[in-house]
């Protein structure tokens, strides 16, 4: 996969490390410009470091997690790099992609679209799992991509769980999620996205992009942590369905040491919730990334 070189857009020293924003011309996204943030902890000045990928939710960009997640301090002390991709292609110019907040721009759902209308540009799965690691390697940035884990929020929680559970190469050592869309073929957000992006609609989605279905037939050991808030409006509306994911995991004989789903009393869907449990998630992944 050929890409133009990374261009550094900004850099900020923080927690003795560096948060850098890059852009490049993305082949996976049909030649569009893509941006991402990368946090390099101070340990990266002397050694290659493991990386934790953060996938943000609907309407977000590469900036939300970096600016509001409260991840950087803990990542600095643990010696872990953080990669913050965008949530969709930008500027594809496809008719209708900007009509709704929960589909199109800002709502790529971390899949590879198969409907012809979207297939050229909406390939966030390839962008995240293949393209970004390659362009970062090619730039000589000191990250050890043999040690990767992934986490995310809401739509990004869906992405983290599905990319982890569908990875035939065992790309990620662990996965975690804040308020993930856990059973998207059973909720309005998922149905809208999958019927819009996928030629095979819900059947194609069930086989590849629904964490509840994936965990039910997964055969390998897993390391998964999920947090959701009981005060979350989208949980109450039936968009998240974490109980479905938990039941499927238990039915597949994954115990609480392999799949832990925690309900947090009174917390909502916001970054106040995420930042409260950010340290838990970084430390969870450190157990697997630093070994």
TrEMBL record:
<feature type="active site" description="Charge relay system">
    <location>
        <position position="232"/>
    </location>
</feature>
<dbReference type="InterPro" id="IPR014186">
    <property type="entry name" value="S-formylglutathione_hydrol"/>
</dbReference>
<dbReference type="GO" id="GO:0005829">
    <property type="term" value="C:cytosol"/>
</dbReference>
<dbReference type="GO" id="GO:0018738">
    <property type="term" value="F:S-formylglutathione hydrolase activity"/>
</dbReference>
<dbReference type="InterPro" id="IPR000801">
    <property type="entry name" value="Esterase-like"/>
</dbReference>
<comment type="function">
    <text>Serine hydrolase involved in the detoxification of formaldehyde.</text>
</comment>
<protein>
    <recommendedName>
        <fullName>S-formylglutathione hydrolase</fullName>
        <ecNumber>3.1.2.12</ecNumber>
    </recommendedName>
</protein>
<dbReference type="GO" id="GO:0052689">
    <property type="term" value="F:carboxylic ester hydrolase activity"/>
</dbReference>
<feature type="active site" description="Charge relay system">
    <location>
        <position position="269"/>
    </location>
</feature>
<keyword id="KW-0378">Hydrolase</keyword>
<comment type="similarity">
    <text>Belongs to the esterase D family.</text>
</comment>
<keyword id="KW-0719">Serine esterase</keyword>
<dbReference type="Pfam" id="PF00756">
    <property type="entry name" value="Esterase"/>
</dbReference>
<dbReference type="InterPro" id="IPR029058">
    <property type="entry name" value="AB_hydrolase_fold"/>
</dbReference>
<feature type="active site" description="Charge relay system">
    <location>
        <position position="154"/>
    </location>
</feature>
<dbReference type="GO" id="GO:0046294">
    <property type="term" value="P:formaldehyde catabolic process"/>
</dbReference>
<keyword id="KW-0963">Cytoplasm</keyword>
